């Protein structure tokens, strides 16, 4: 594992998992949320998204966490390991609500500065419908990529903890 893409629904724990994994195996971590947003929740252009990710994946080692489906292939094509946090929608919704309550109006370390924690019905609906709307498409991509790289699907907090205990 030298080039790792971490994907999953909002609230699945991608950033927390990525940080723990990065610390354990000493590989640089890139949170897409911190790279693809400007202060005030202004997104960088699509061209900038592509350029930023193309620069990262040229490095010898990296961990990138985030979805951004329109540029997902950039990461999946160059990763040697893809980790999908396939966590229950109800756990994800709980975590998002908890995160909002705990961090309301504060910046998170895995987000760009000037982007305080926020919550919207649109985001909650996206998480709730992720298993039907996004997961099948992602699983198809993972099946294609599993031919030439390691694909790991973690379905629970217990799976995540077990994986982190055994990785070095």
TrEMBL record:
Signal peptide positions (record): none
InterPro entries: Cytidylate_Kinase-2, P-loop_NTPase
UniProt-recorded name of the protein: DNA topology modulation protein
Protein's organism: Halobacillus salinus
């Amino acid at each position: 594992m030298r080039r790792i893409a971490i994907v999953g629904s909002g609230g699945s724990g991608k950033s927390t998992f990525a940080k723990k994994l990065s610390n354990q195996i000493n590989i640089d971590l890139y949170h897409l949320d911190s790279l693809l947003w400007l202060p005030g929740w202004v997104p960088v252009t699509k061209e900038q998204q592509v350029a930023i990710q193309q620069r990262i994946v040229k490095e010898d080692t990296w961990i990138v966490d985030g979805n951004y489906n329109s540029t997902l292939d950039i990461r999946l094509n160059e990763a040697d390991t893809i980790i999908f946090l396939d966590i229950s929608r109800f756990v994800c919704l709980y975590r998002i609500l908890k995160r909002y309550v705990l961090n309301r109006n504060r910046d998170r370390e895995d987000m760009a500065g000037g982007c305080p924690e926020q919550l919207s019905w649109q985001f909650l609906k996206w998480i709730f419908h992720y298993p039907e709307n996004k997961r099948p498409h992602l699983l198809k991509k993972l099946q294609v990529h599993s031919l030439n790289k390691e694909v790991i699907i973690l379905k629970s907090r217990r799976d995540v903890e077990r994986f982190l205990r055994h990785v070095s």
